[in-house]
Amino acid sequence: MRVAFFGSPDFALPSLLALNERFDVALVVSQPDKAAGRGLKTRPPAVARVAAGLGLPLAQPARLRNNSEFAERLAGLQPDVAVTVAYGKLLPQALLDLPRCGFLNVHASLLPKYRGAGPVQWALINGERVTGVTIMRTEAGLDTGPACLVRATEIADDERAPELFGRLAQLGARTIVEALEKLSGGRLECRPQDDAEATFAPQLRREDGDLDWNQPAAASYDRFRGVAGWPGTRFEFAAGEVRVFDMRPVDGAGQPGEVIGLSEAGVVVATGEGALELLELQPAGKRRMSARAWANGYRVRMGATLA
């Protein structure tokens, strides 16, 4: 089968590599290079970088809608199917109609749950114990197309977003290969999603990482796992931001935000229900350090209140 591959970030790389081993990848489409990092150097997306290294044909159109030049290029390749994995742009219907078998998308949730840009993060934030990947036929709507193949996996109690992203990327790669093998044999069955069961997973905002001491400790720990990587967890202390790199829920009671313990490992803070033991922190402008070293350096005592 001739495949056109649409993807941009690291999450899409296992799928690209797996498809390139088994099928004819006629074109790789990724987002344009963007300025990133401290020096704001222009860098290609991960998929564009790897595709170039593999010598695969590459396109990075700034827009897809009303882009006749790109549409003509894709049509001229006569792909049997196109695959999207975290490409990052909605596809116009005129483009969706070009491949003989349409577009298939690798989505990192058990659709119709967690439609949208942040399915991995919100599954963790909401305390889900099972997630997975869904291969769906792409429609003009947001993750609304028929589901063709679903594979589930359990979420570990202490698993964080970067680790879960990595596992689902590998699971997605295996599943899209299976889907294309079924498609080539005429055995891929797709069924409409139940819109009544749909939930939405919006892209994270910076404020989604704010630590709310009024929430139960278990809920705050789930949010910590979900926002790991970006935007990360943080709180305010002494008019400065403190980032949290490690913590865990523990037993304890007190006023939300009150320091109720100074352990050898860290700082125990009361929440709306239970407590959180902060283990590794980074004050603004400083290096990462143990929470106990932070407490010693900033003279955090029992009974202090963290905002």
Record field, number of beta strands: 15
Strand order of the largest sheet: 5-2-1-6-7-8-9
Count the helices. How many? Answer: 8
The rounded Rg comes to: 23 Å
Q: Mean of residue pLDDT? A: 96
The first-to-last residue Cα distance is 57 Å
Task: Please give the share of residues in helix.
Answer: 25-40%
Largest sheet: 7 strands, mixed
- Structural category: alpha/beta
The fraction of residues assigned to DSSP E strands is 25-35%
* SSE string: EHEEEHEHEHEHEEHHEEEEEEH
Low-confidence stretches: none
Brief descriptors of the model:
six-stranded antiparallel sheet, seven-stranded mixed sheet, alpha/beta, single chain, 26% strand
